[in-house]
Amino acid sequence: MILDDFGVTFSEDYKILVKGNMDLEEYTVPVGTEVIGKDAWGKMDKLKAIHLPEGLRVIEPLAFSGCMGLSTIQLPSTLEEIGPYAFEFTMLRAVIVPEGITVLRNDVFGECFGLQTVVLPTSLEFIEDYAFCSCPSPQLVLLSSDRKLKSIAQNAFDGSNAIFLVLYELQKSYMEAFPAHNDRFFGVNIIKGKEEAEVFSPQGEVVGKIRVQMADSASS
Prior knowledge:
This protein has 220 residues and is mostly beta strands. The protein has helices spanning 168-177, 215-218; strands spanning 2-3, 9-10, 16-19, 26-28, 35-36, 49-51, 58-59, 81-82, 94-96, 103-104, 117-119, 126-127, 139-142, 151-152, 163-167, 185-190, 196-200, 206-211. The N and C termini lie far apart (39 Å).
């Protein structure tokens, strides 16, 4: 193991961040790091900001669990996997999950009481147990032009009023595919020529307007 100048522990080849430093409030993970290790920053609640490099591939289970000072994070486009419980009990407000992520693991954002918006990738296929449990009312934005999502655990949103924003033309498809969660799917009808959309409730009523950008075009 190697200790860097900030008291953060790495593997000998510097590819795995093994353990953070509980006294740090901010840290920039060096380029070349590929893995944030299991429980690396767990319960280090002084941490307020961490900067992750492009090239990072894996965030292992419990990596940031209990970092109660952590309110923002930018996940790199190279990320391939986020482990269970990775961000539980943090104060994240908004997250963009990068393209390529296919699974949101158990309790990955559980008990994130301040979570407001999660932009989900078009590649997402599975949402596992308690992924958003006890998150009061986040909006989960999934504006892909086809439905790749295959499975949502019945208890994925226990204790949560989370809603999905999906394209209006796919709203019915989502509701039929996931009957246990059909009251969570709100349709987004994009107004032609504008970056604006009407939002339809599961009952078919217009409940407001939002500014919007298509996930497919944003990722191309």
